[in-house]
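On clarity, I found the account of how folds are encoded harder to follow than it need be. What matters is that the chain and its backbone geometry are given together, residue for residue. For the editor and my fellow referees, an illustration may be useful. For illustration, here is how one protein appears when written out as sequence plus structure tokens:

___
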Amino acid sequence: MDLPRALAYSRYATRLAVAQPALLDALTATLGAPFAWDAARADVAAAVAADDAVGLARTLRQLRQRVFVHTLARDLTGRAPLAEVCADITTLAETALGAAVTFHHRALAARHGEPIGTDGTAQQLIVIGMGKLGGGELNVSSDVDLVFVYPEEGETNGARRISNHEFFDLLGRRIIGALDPRPRS
């Protein structure tokens, strides 16, 4: 199947192609190869390094659009096996999740300090991907089911201390907001 016919099967891809002609040009140029994750990860890393939550959310939204359109086009034109499709969508979820965790943990720690356990060690959020994410089998219609846990109770070590529970609750809420595909005003 050729690219225009393949894209016609997806209202999402059709809308994006009309709204963002440059995205269609990039897709045409890269359709013959799997998604270029090295360049995408560099873009995400730059967004994480910047101190701009809105910019990070925008970068993650744009990455989602590029991966979805590239993956569905390669799939519908017979260029990608199912394993590539699942790997790309799973990598998208893992990349976006990792970026959101890193960025928002850093932002909360700057305000409240690092969450510290009873033995004095810094605590990190543990994100458990359930279902297809945990199995590395996501596809474009999969839901992402996550469980957030943290090692132990305690409190942050900054000037504006809060409990570890409060810290990780705030972090979870910010992560979910950063992964929302809808633009924020």
